């Protein structure tokens, strides 16, 4: 439905609700009630579906940028009325939104100290059953920590490549490394 309705209007496509197909008006039975198209007010595809979330882990402090991909994820970013990732609010980033296919949002802080992981829940327009979806993938809160740094010394002038080893080092959506308040260029 979403892919059909976002097609350029020159194709004159519309979503035929009864047959659940993208059709020209004349091929949709009872088109007056059944055919959704660009010119109709409050056009919204039902049955949103999440196919992928990335990343699947992040810190409780928030700030992780989560990408949600799927089908029927609204035709405009303003249609997204509710997004929670593992029970935590996630705020849509309008510039990264792709109509019907992709929502990118920034995680708020998880207020519970031991927040369990969970699915992504989102609603398009209203949060009724036909406009609400849950992801099959789950998101987990983790705390990155490091156990070892090599080498332990280097020249004051810089340029030493450091290797940092630890747990959950790939969580979240961005990496920043600081050594004594100085930012270290992250390589990989």
Write the layout of secondary structure elements.
Elements: H1 2-5, E1 14-16, E2 21-23, H2 31-34, E3 35-36, E4 49-54, E5 57-58, E6 65-71, E7 80-85, E8 88-92, E9 102-107, E10 118-124, E11 132-141, E12 145-150, E13 163-167, E14 177-179, E15 182-184
The rounded distance between the terminal residues' Cα atoms is 40 Å
Structural class determined from secondary elements: mainly beta
Residue share in helix? under 10%
Question: Would you list the SSEs in sequence order as H and E?
Answer: HEEHEEEEEEEEEEEEE
How would a textbook summarize the main sheet? Answer: 8 strands, mixed
Count of DSSP-assigned helices? 2
Spatial order of strands in the largest sheet: 4-6-9-8-7-10-11-5
Bin the strand percentage: 35-45%
Structural shape: elongated
- Overall number of strands: 15
* Rg estimate, integer Å: 22 Å
Low-confidence stretches: none
Overall mean pLDDT stands at 89
Q: What keyword list fits this structure?
A:
2 helices, 39% strand, elongated, mainly beta, 4% helix, 188 residues, three-stranded antiparallel sheet, eight-stranded mixed sheet, 15 strands
């Amino acid at each position: 439905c979403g892919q059909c309705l976002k097609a350029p209007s020159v194709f004159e496509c519309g979503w035929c609700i009864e047959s659940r197909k993208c059709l020209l008006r004349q091929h949709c039975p009872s088109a007056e009630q059944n055919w959704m198209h660009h010119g109709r007010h409050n056009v919204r595809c039902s049955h949103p579906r999440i196919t992928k979330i990335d990343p699947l882990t992040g810190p409780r402090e928030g700030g992780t940028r989560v990408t949600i991909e799927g089908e029927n994820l609204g035709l405009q970013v303003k249609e997204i009325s509710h997004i929670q990732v593992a029970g935590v609010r996630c705020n849509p980033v309008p510039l990264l939104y792709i109509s019907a296919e992709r929502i990118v949002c920034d995680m708020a802080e998880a207020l519970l100290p031991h927040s369990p992981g969970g699915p992504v829940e989102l609603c398009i327009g209203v949060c009724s059953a036909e406009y609400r979806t849950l992801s099959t993938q789950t998101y987990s809160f983790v705390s990155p920590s490091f156990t070892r740094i090599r080498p332990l010394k280097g020249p004051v002038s810089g340029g030493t490549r450091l290797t940092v080893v630890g747990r959950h080092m790939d969580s979240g959506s961005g990496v920043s490394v600081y050594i004594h308040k100085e930012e270290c260029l992250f390589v990989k």
